[in-house]
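Final report, closing paragraph on structural work. Over the funding period we assembled a curated collection of sequence-structure pairs, and we close with a single example.
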Amino acid sequence: MKYDLDHRIARATALAEVYPAAREILTFYRELAVFQKSVSEDLRARPETDVRALVRYFPALLDVVSRNGPPQLTSFAGVNLDTSAKQEEILLACWEGDAAADPASSGAGRFYARALLQPYAEYLASRGNIQRDAAEPRCPFCNGLPVVGVLRGEGDGAKRSLLCSLCATEWLYRRVICPSCGEENKDKLPVFMADQIAHVRVDACDTCQTYVKSVDLTKDGHAVPVVDELATVALNIWAEEHGYSKFEPNLLGM
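Its predicted structure, as stored:
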């Protein structure tokens, strides 16, 4: 099942009441998702496939961030995104995977580019024929890295899929394997959970010291993985305090 932006907006609103510590993060994300929905609808109405066309949405994105986001993002934009040429540069650098490009390689630069590229990539993915049982650690559509795992019931256990951090494509992936380094020894793949967040867990790897969070839909069928992953930032803090680094950050860089 693919969770559209309406599902994400509604879930962010609901979880902001459940997780007070993450309320500010979820409120900001909700406003971003509302913005992304408007971009998605506009792209589909045109229809638009040139990534450079996303520059026209920058003023609206900058307004959302100035009203709801942290000051450092606004400060970054004032210096690095004050012209359409700079805005196009950052979009192209992120889309083409140029990690050395400046300022797209910074956390703030990545945020602005991805806030626009996500609805664009989702739109392109909706037009494609995707092999969802590819069983690789990268997205079978855009080659992006997974932002979260998804567990669904199957027989007496659960099957796992991964959710792309860019185009939101979901594809099947083996449960007992690290998507970062390919470790398969279950003794080196610890799982950590917190009682108060029973449906979200940390899937860690002691070989490469990375982790991916997984959302277990058998424990909470109302969960929207990309939002529940974002809401449970306490698990990120726990994992990083124990020496693990997240395999792929979410939109907000966490």
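The radius of gyration is 18 Å. The CA atoms of residues 9 and 34 lie 7 Å apart. We thank the funder for supporting this effort.
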